[in-house]
Write a structure and sequence with these properties.
It is built from 16 helices and 18 strands. By secondary structure, the chain is α/β, with parallel strands linked by helices. The chain has a five-stranded mixed β-sheet with strand order 8-10-11-13-12, covered by helices on one side. Strands 15-14-16-17-18 form a five-stranded parallel β-sheet, with helices on both faces. Strand 12 and strand 13 form a beta hairpin. Helix 5 runs parallel beside helix 6, helix 7 packs parallel to helix 12 and helix 9 runs parallel beside helix 10. The longest helix is centred in the middle third of the chain and has 59 residues.
Amino acid sequence: MNVAQWLRPAASSIRSRILVIALIPALLTEFGLVGYFTQRALTSTRDALEVRASNAARHLADALPYALVSGNVPLIQQRLKTESVHSQLARAHVSDAEGRTLTQVPISPTSRATLYRVKLPIYLPEAELQDGLLLPAPATPTLPLGWVEIGVSLDAMRVARTQTLWHAALLMLAALGVTGVLAWRLSSRFAGQLQHVGHVVGQLAHNELAVRTMLPATGEIGQLAAGINDMAQALQTHRGELEQRIRDATINLAAKKEQAERANQAKSRFFAAASHDLRQPLHALSLFVAALKACNQQAETTNLIDNIEAASSAMTLLLNALLDISRLDAGAIEARPQHFSLEPMLDELTARFAPIAAEKGVKLSHRSRHATLYSDPLLIERILDNLIANAIRYTDDGGVLIGCRQRGSQVRLTVWDTGRGIAPEHQENIFHEFVQLHNPARDRTQGLGLGLAIVSRLARLMGHRIDVRSRPGCGSAFSLDVPLGHARLIETPAASPPTVPGALATDALVVLIDDESAILRGMAELFEHWEIDLVVGRNAAEALHWLAALKRTPDVIVSDYRLPDDDGIAVIAQLRSTCGSQIPAVLVTGDTAPDTLRRIQAAELPLLHKPLRPAKLRALITHLIQQNRARMG
């Protein structure tokens, strides 16, 4: 294991790092000092033993010559014992010149391997008389009288080494303890400061910008704490400024939102009023045109009447498109998804647009696979109606194909054409209001530029994705992704009234309630040419007055919804109650407000929107009369 691996577990905190940094140098230093002084102590002990052994050997070598010459072995033995005790010898051995042992102090068997031996020769000293003193003569090479061998035990050195090591270990532990305590206190202070700073930073991170560090601004940690305090103060100041800006912006946004809501409410009120007030004259105009057309007997005025009817139809178409967009933007139209079969819808659309396509020399066809969809069939038909009309309008040669293809849980409806195509930079703008790329002169016969805007809003309302792929000169493909439905869940639609006029009974009587004089006159003219008896009134009381005078019960009640004193639902209920019969009734209105439409739907009354088509009104009246008389038997 290397040092880095050994340090890694201890490096989990600042405190442990400081302890490691403080203890490792101290430990290395103490080991070095212990080793040095222990080695010196052992060397001194060994030197002392060697000196003692050498001194004892020289002393015996000087003291034993005469005992050797005289052969006094007991004296030699006594001298050995005395020296052994005095110098703590482990071995003392004396031999003659031939090496024969004269005497010795025995050594213990356990000390044989731990002796320091010194062997010296024993010479007979020579002396000479100088100035009356006997002095040793200079040494001359002679044969030794014998040999003395001294052995000193090294056990003392081992004991000294053990004691030295123990003393060093205790000293090292004490030094490490002191160093550890100092390092721990230092690290605790340092770590405490850092923990305090870290706690403050954590509070700042949790948006508690009023907290500050409590450390003096001295040293590196103090400077760090001061910097954090400055940063916290700056953050608090900036947050205060931002909060003030946010409050100001919130107030401004609330004011603008309130203003926008008021504008939206005003817009809704305007369109609600426009839907009724603008439709009223158009409704009267369509009635007068129908009456004029019915009573016209002059061929030269027929073309003029047709032009008036075409202009009226164009105004009606534009008004309906504008009001449809406003209703979609205001959320007044609700999608009502159901399971329905696609093929009958495509058959009806193809049959409806086939004459228009044939007039332009464009081939119109469709390919379906008996697909079942889950969506609002009326809105899907409206989308396909606009896409097919656009495809035929902007295709000069070739054809238009309506197809479908299943893609997982979705069915992709696509309208292909071989028309003029759309440049990539314009493919997003075509879904905006009044955008017509190929009609800069705003020719009304080429459309109003509202079809794709309505398509986009309807698709968004139902949550369906619409896509366009096109290249200039190569045609376009508009696709709509609709959820797949289940054929077994298709509901059989109720039979709708005929859309062509039928034969009316000669004794049929219709009551018309409306507060507009022009509409009453137009209806009167129209019903007169239809040869239907008509009773008109501005309210329920006036209508009941004329019915009482005629002493007849009407076959159908036709009432405007918005009346001065009450609404059409209440008027119909009053007429039915007075006549004592559940008379079939029709509501006519130019109001498109969501609440109005929901109330009419809850009343379960047939509804016709102004301006209505006279033929559709006659067909509905005929159907209601025939249905009621069949029920009455």
